[in-house]
Fold Chaperone protein HtpG.
Amino acid sequence: MSKREFQTEVSQLLQLIVHSLYSHPEIFLRELVSNASDALDKLRHLTLTDDAYKSLPFEPRIDLDLDEEKKTLSISDTGIGMNEEDLISHLGTIARSGTKNFLTQLSGDARRDSNLIGQFGVGFYSAFMVADKVEVTSRKAGEEKAWRWISDGKSGFEIEPAERAVAGTTVLLHFNDEGAQYANSWRLQEIVKKYSNHIAFPIFLTYDKSEWNEEEKKSTKTRVTEQVNVASAMWRRSKSELKDEDYKELFKSLAGGWEEPLFWFHTKAEGSLEYTTLFYVPAKAPLDLYRADYKSGVKLYVKRVFIMDDSKDLLPEYLRFVRGIIDSEDLPLNVSREILQQNRVLSNIRTASVKKILSELKNIAENDKEKYATFIAEYNRLLKEGLYSDFANRETLLELIRVKTTKADGLTSLADVKSRMQDGQKAIYYITGGTEALLRTSPLLEIYRKKGIEVLVLDDEIDEIVFSGIEKYDDIELKSVNRTATSDDFKDEAQADKTEEVKPLLEKIKAILGDRVKDVRASARLADSPSCIVTDEDEPSARMRQMMKAMGQQNLPELKPTLEINPEHAIVQKLLNHADDKVTEDAAWLLFDQALLLEGTQLQDPAAFVQRLNRVLQQSV
Ligand SMILES: Nc1ncnc2c1ncn2[C@@H]1O[C@H](COP(=O)(O)OP(=O)(O)OP(=O)(O)O)[C@@H](O)[C@H]1O
């Protein structure tokens, strides 16, 4: 027998499991049954596709064996099994990125942390919530030797050779005090029905059944084996046969968590391609959503046979929050990951699935505003990613996203913004490039406020990249307020006269600021502020440049901003007739620096700014 230690993360996790106020220890059974079902899926796939496995006997089933006296329960499957190496690596380390991610999110606050476990499901290790000793006996399909892995869930585990007649795995739990309540056949049947009713394989329970014996006038116990679940691939049944509870139950066994799904879309396609899809949107966004190694949530089946659950090609990346099943009649069983990428059948299913998901979302947006708001709170950003990456569905995605604006409370749709447009309004305008507070107080919004025009306040980091690529919503142009040409929409004749009037001053300022600016112009977009910074149509904005730098683009050419001056502002009017060049120079720099500050750009020379400010203050106090 050899003794081994757990990887540090496993010990950490086990510590937490044992000491947490975990509120639903019953999910241990769901986790172990789902592992058994995965193992059966894997072996079935091999027996259908791999010659080396074709001749192996395969009777897929899951057996629960209960000993009420001894307070033990075993969960056995006839699946793929594990050899010595597998036992060590699969049950002694944490490979799941999700679990690692989970561990990094722990706060040390037991109540909060156990809630987190609830959202997660911790797989095999959840056995230690209910057992103080776990023995896993396993034989890998195609191999002769069997091995036993034994652990008390504390320091580590032991491994020894064992016997097993057929390939598969048996997990034997010795219940602890907390787990003793599950040494009860009623309870077990109830839990299996609740979480695992639709697992595609039969689950049998063997236990001592009490029956009243009329002759002996007492109840006697007989050992019986009964099937507990319905074992149908639920998604293949028709919608009318299924209850909400059925859908929710399948979701929980798929997503491995506690949360309810927010909604689901079940589709059967018949025609040139035959397939069934069942997609769920989780009520809470999966925690690994923004990790590069996020776990894909869609399982691929071919004719009810599980094929894979980790392909990121089944749905586009921006729909990575979707959980569910694609079951195709037309794909070959031995379809490989590489083939999938260019498979026409799959790409048709994928295209149709995306359309279906988006159109269902649109439906909900129109008919159940409250539910849609919950959805948006979790997934708005992902939809925006879609705007960037999914050109074909851009129009629908524009209907689906929600934005902040200068007029609406909370979030609003572009359709609503359009309906609130003023007569003669030429475009829908937006501002990007900073925090919400910075954007809302930007001088660039002054003209819009004055004219009562609504502006989208796009403060999400990705907004700038996303929206700079979108020219229109419906038939209406989308324009950024900080672009030079945008203010052309507001130019009028009175403006032209003003511009003439300040021309000499503009030239003076330009000469003072020298090569720090590209141009100095009269502004048509300012009301209360004396100056602002704008960017040319074809140039990246200040914020965009910061992001490009952050992403490693070091040699960006220095961009010069364009400074706009408000010809009607009192400061500007005074400067027009000012003879003192020293004062004009300070004013020119202060107008420029304050515009940069309001744009969220750091000053190159803060000390010079402060000196100038103090000079001006000294004259005015
Ligand atoms: N009954 C089993 N038969 C074969 N392998 C198993 C069995 N139970 C667990 N394993 C192996 O142990 C690994 C770890 O299991 P665990 O439940 O912790 O995570 P997981 O099943 O990979 O993750 P998830 O629950 O998110 O699918 C599995 O990936 C699998 O390789």
Notes: The pocket of adenosine-5'-triphosphate is lined by residues 31, 35-36, 39, 77, 79-82, 90-91, 96, 123-124, 169, 256 (CB under 6 Å). The mean pLDDT is 88.
